[in-house]
Specification:
By secondary structure, the protein is of the alpha/beta class. It has 21 helices and 21 strands. Helix content is 35%, strand content 25%. Helix 15 crosses helix 16 and helix 16 crosses helix 17.
């Protein structure tokens, strides 16, 4: 690629390795080269471990000095100036002023002991030399520009007092405070609801045009990238597989890996029996027949329920002042039934009550009111002792496999512990055989039994969590955002696995997610929740083809659909 006058930043032959120990290094980037033109959005796309974030951290001089090794031939040219040869003082002056970054998780990026306004003001005073009064006024203007309601009040609140979408807007306000020439957005919408995600995408696009910035958008999701990018760079294993205009990448991708990333995402207009995965494309140009064959889903009116919920309510009480209290009605009169071998999808934005329903069914929250019948027995009316034999029948897979697996246990102990508690297996030897069988079911090798959770990828950890739930031989499995944090290719593998297990064991799923494309693909019936209430219930195809409630139409309208001809910039 040739350097042009219109190019704001050029990466040339970037090679980065990390020192593992005295004798071992890991090559993270293997000679990466690409350009970011002025006033253009370039998307860096790839799975975890592809080198996307390492590339952006190298641009900002944020790679760890003690372990990161950058090849001397590498160059990162910003307006003709090599950032890899700048001093620490020069990079401090550039960061925030000329090049800014929005990180993936705003809650871990914002300081919890300072107000959000004070954190933005600090950036303004450091780089623009504004006094306290001017910095505060400019912060209020920035909050208004990024769409934070009542900005004059919000400047004085702490990060925990804002929603996830508002926290991300604070991060964006901080990033554009000094009107940088380049804005780097590292997975800025991954953990957000579909509606908030759409708002952030539109906001960044508007700010780019208004301020004349260039944007480097880092993501693993091509559907999101297609909504915002002008140019796309596809990475895998530290190398660039394909680069070009967004239209070309989406309409006629040359590389098999790019085609795989596009196909792994659950489609909205049809439902293949199996989702395509990377291995279907890499080294094998023919897609499996099962990814072409269509599946049908739905619940017949006469199917008997294995689980029936009636009038479920959950309230939370909070103290206010010395003697006052406030009641939050998190779940309000929720009722539904779930037949054996079927999937009920629960969708809604954060705070809608989806996860609270799942946790209350597990009795991890105490219900305020209502009944939960499992095979005709009311679980909520039982004492803890009476419910013990039924606990194994309803299991849950949590969203974060990093937090839900004990880091001090090897996988074998993680799988055998619940078996011991519920008396499954005659002895340790039999339990180990059952654990090996569960690992086989979820596609992990027997050697996994002796490894610790940190030795696995995110997708593999989620498979371990599924294996642990399956070791109880449950009838009902609650999947609480269990694929939302995974790469699209790993997500496809886990969804295929869940479908295989459902077919083999006649499992019933309650699938909780804010990703409506995934929910439509795997669900027989969908229940839409808003502010703790059920606003609509219908078969999955019907609810997408003809949504009845305005809130459902709003959710469906916000689903990212990738690049489309004639789409606005």
């Amino acid at each position: 690629m040739s350097e042009t006058q219109d190019c704001l930043l050029s990466v040339r032959d970037l090679k980065v390795s990390f020192r593992i120990d005295k004798h071992t290094t890991f090559e993270a980037l293997k000679g990466v080269s690409f350009d970011i033109p002025r006033e253009t959005t370039v998307a860096l796309v790839g799975e975890s471990g592809s080198g996307k974030s390492v590339s952006s951290l190298a641009m900002l001089g944020l790679l760890p000095k003690e372990s990161a090794l950058i090849d001397p031939v590498s160059r990162i040219l910003y307006n003709g100036r090599d950032l890899l040869r700048c001093s620490a003082a020069e990079m401090r002056d550039l960061r925030g002023k000329d090049i800014s970054m929005i990180f993936q998780d705003p809650m871990s990026s914002l300081n919890p002991v300072f107000t959000v306004g004070a954190q933005v003001e600090e950036t303004l005073r450091l780089h623009l030399d504004l006094n306290r009064k001017a910095a505060r006024q400019r912060t209020i203007e920035l909050f208004d520009e990024v769409g934070i309601p009542e900005p004059h009040k919000r400047v004085d609140v702490y990060p925990h007092q804002l929603s996830g979408g508002q926290q991300q807007r604070v991060m964006i306000a901080m990033a554009i405070a000094c009107e940088p020439k380049l804005l780097i957005a590292d997975e800025p919408t991954t953990a957000l609801d579909v509606t908030i995600q759409q708002q952030i995408i539109e906001l960044v696009a508007q700010l780019r045009r208004r301020h004349g910035m260039a944007v480097l958008w880092i993501s693993h999701d091509l559907a999101v990238v297609g909504e915002i990018a002008d140019q796309v760079v596809v990475m895998r294993h530290g190398e660039i597989r394909e680069a070009g205009p967004a239209q070309q990448i989406f309409e006629a991708p040359h590389d098999a890996y790019t085609r795989a990333l596009i196909q792994c995402r659950p489609p909205l207009d049809h439902r293949p029996k199996r989702l395509a995965v990377i291995d279907d494309f890499i080294g094998n140009e023919l897609v499996m027949a099962s990814t072409v064959e269509q599946a049908t889903r739905g619940i017949a009116p006469d199917e008997p329920p294995i689980l029936e919920v009636k009038g479920l309510c959950k309230d939370f009480e909070f103290r206010e002042g010395l003697f006052g209290k406030r009641v939050l009605h998190a779940v309000k009169d929720v009722s539904f039934s779930l037949p054996q071998g079927k999937t009920l999808g629960l969708v809604g934005e954060s705070g809608s009550g989806k996860s609270t329903v799942g946790l209350t069914l597990m009795r991890l929250h105490k219900a305020s009111k209502g009944e939960v019948f499992y095979r005709g027995k009311n679980l909520l009316a039982m004492s803890a002792r009476e419910q013990m034999p039924y606990k194994r029948n309803i299991q849950i897979i949590f969203q974060n496999p990093y937090a839900s697996l004990n880091p001090r246990f090897v996988v074998g102990d993680i799988l055998k512990e619940p078996m011991c508690l519920h008396g499954i297996g005659q002895d340790d030897r039999e339990r180990e055989q059952l654990a090996l069988e569960m690992l086989y079911r979820v596609g992990l090798p027997p050697l996994s039994l002796r490894k610790y959770p940190h030795e696995f990828s995110g997708g593999q950890r989620q498979r371990i969590a599924i294996a642990r739930a399956l070791s109880m031989r449950p009838d009902v499995l609650i999947c609480d955002e269990s694929v939302s944090a995974l790469d699209v290719s790993v997500q496809a593998q886990v969804l295929n696995l869940l479908q295989d297990l459902q077919a083999e064991f006649a499992l019933s799923y309650i699938f909780i997610s804010h990703d409506l494309a995934v929910v439509k693909y795997i669900s027989d019936q969908i229940m839409v929740m808003n502010a703790g209430e059920v606003v609509e219930v219908a078969d999955s195809d019907a609810i997408y083809d003809n949504p009845q409630h305005p809130y459902t139409r709003k959710l469906i309208g916000a689903i990212p659909r990738g690049w489309q001809p004639g789409a606005p910039e």
